[in-house]
Amino acid sequence: MASDYSVICKLGGYVNSNPELISSFPSLDQSLEEEVLSKCFPIGSKYGEFIVDKYRKYIVLSYIFRVNQAVDRDDLFSLSVLLNKRDKTEIYMVVLKGLIDILDANGILNQDVLTEHQQDIFEGINQEKDINIKNTLIDFSNIFKEIKSKILKQKPELKGSFL
To answer: How far apart (Å, rounded) are the C-alpha atoms in residues 32 and 12?
Structure first.
């Protein structure tokens, strides 16, 4: 299992809004929420940006994206995974962006869908298995397979001597 936690944070598009932790799976202790929030959605985060930070024994990988709103400005969200230190963040960057792009392209990217299906997303990422969200296939197995074939290329076996 690669990720121990999945965290969703939000910065509302209305005046005087502050970042807030919307949900986590599995649930975090309430005493840790403020500390985790600052790692998952740091001040100054911008749409389309990846944030990589350290938190205790984890690497926190967050993808910042927006959800269009009819009123006021768009809301900014952060979908974060707390990874083991040995995991390659490059793989999970592609996976998180791919997930958000698929949900957005199918018109189902919103806070309710993210929180309602957070456990499915968490399990899909950890087990590298496909999931369905609102009749939309998220092909995690193929996304992982493609990105791993690019990133985890076998190193050539060197022969001979080097002086």
So the answer is: 21
Edge-to-edge strand ranges of the sheet holding 75-84? 20-25, 3-11, 75-84, 58-67, 50-55
6 within 8 A of 122, measured Cβ to Cβ: yes
The CA distance from 35 to 19, in Å, is 12
Cα–Cα nearest to 28, from 80, 85, 93: 80
Report how far residue 89's alpha carbon sits from residue 59's, in angstroms, rounded to the nearest whole number.
8
Cβ density class 86-98: b for 16+ within 10 Å, e for less: eeeebbbebbbbb
CATH architecture of 3-151: 2-Layer Sandwich (3.30)
Could you check whether the bond before residue 26 is cis, i.e. omega within 30 degrees of 0? yes
Q: For tokens 């040995």, name the residue.
A: 86
Domain ranges of the chain: 3-151
pLDDT digits (tens, 9 = 90+) for 7-57: 999 998 888 888 999 999 999 888 888 899 999 999 889 999 999 999 989
Global model pTM greater than 0.85? yes
